[in-house]
Amino acid sequence: MVEARQTKLAIVGAGAVGTAVAYSSLIRGVARTVALLDINKAKVTAEVLDLSHGLEFIPRADIIGDDDVAVCAGADVVVFTAGAKQKPGQSRLELAEATIGLTKKILPGLLEVAPDAIYVMVTNPVDIVTYAALKFSGLPRNQLFGSGTVLDSSRLRFLLSQYTGVAPQNVHAYIAGEHGDSEIPLWESATIGAVPLLEWQALPGYPPLDEEARRSIHHDVVHAAYQIIEGKGATNYAIGLAATRIVEAILKDEHRILPVSTVAQGFAGLDDVCLSLPAVVGRTGCGRRLDVKLSDEERAGLLASAQTLRDMQSRFGL
Fold first, then answer.
1. Cα–Cα distance between 277 and 263 in angstroms, integer?
2. For residue 37, what are the β-bridge partners?
3. Are 66 and 44 a contacting pair, CB within 8 Å?
4. In the CATH hierarchy, which top-level class contains the domain 8-146?
5. CATH number belonging to domain 150-315
6. Could you confirm whether 219 is annotated as catalytic?
7. Order of all β-strands in the sheet with 77-80
8. Three-state secondary structure call for residue 110
9. Is 38 annotated as a binding residue?
């Protein structure tokens, strides 16, 4: 009997998001080994111990952690969550400078011990950090990309499911562009079941999904993180699940369509920034970007989102 290939997930940062990724990855049985790296050795040791005490209740796995980058050696996937904590009222883009510096400092050691890993950047502002990491690392865009608007798209689907009375799994809609204030919903290509979203007829007891409703839903998606941060200080559970979903798509070579963030080569006006569009994600990382049908308004919004990111990149000399 041939033993299944062992897989290893390394997570950089044992804060609220990093530990949420570790926790959800262990529960879903995504990798045989989950490794946590953090500069705070006492914190990472305690997190590993706490998670280890629950290993009886999940698919077979090992959880390890250290403040030495060697703990990430041989990883198949590296999820980068280390960065400054977002404060109430603070935009994602305002976090950029310190996080870019941290990324530049940590990446070389990671590349030395895990040169063949697929790198998934989660730290905010994720699009700027991803662009910087591509520059610093020299990795191809399929091997290093950002979590992008995978979480935002999940928020959109949740809100649409609440509004229409249909399960989130049957809502197929994406947020594109920046993971932040300039992001846009792709209404033109969205469907509920097999029905185009713009042609959806409300179920009994539910309001019509008209332009005003769509505008309200878009507003709530954009401001969701601010509301959560105001109440509990950080978003962690949903982004932990979103990052785990990306890792699962990679390790299981699922060829799953996910709106991850990378350089949109071949798209006019978008080829010098990292932003999100639906793409095929599998064992080689981020593959082909889909040629999604866009309305004129959506195309304009995507270009405006790209300009927002381009302005921020130039501010930091990227």
1. 10
2. 12, 66
3. yes
4. alpha beta
5. 3.90.110.10
6. no
7. 62-66, 33-37, 8-12, 77-80, 118-121, 144-146, 261-263, 274-276
8. helix
9. yes
Beta strand segments in 13-51, E: 33-37
Predicted confidence (pLDDT) at residue 2 exceeds the cutoff of 50: no
132 assigned to a ligand binding site: no
Residues 6+ apart with CB under 8 A from 190: 171, 172, 173, 174, 196, 197, 198
307 a known binding residue? no
Quickly state the pLDDT bin for 156 (edges 50, 70, 90). very high
The per-residue pLDDT for range 101-121, each reduced to its tens digit, is 899 999 999 999 999 999 999
**pLDDT score for 1:** 41
**Structure tokens of 98?**
């310190």
Where along the chain do its domains lie? 8-146, 150-315
Query: Could you check whether 8-146 and 150-315 share the same CATH topology?
Result: no
DSSP 123: S
**pTM as predicted:** 0.94
Instruction: Please tell me the distance from the alpha carbon of residue 137 to that of residue 23, in angstroms, as a whole number.
Output: 28
Strands 285-289 and 279-282: antiparallel
Q: Which of 53, 179, 219, 255 is catalytic?
A: 179
Annotated binding residue 263: no
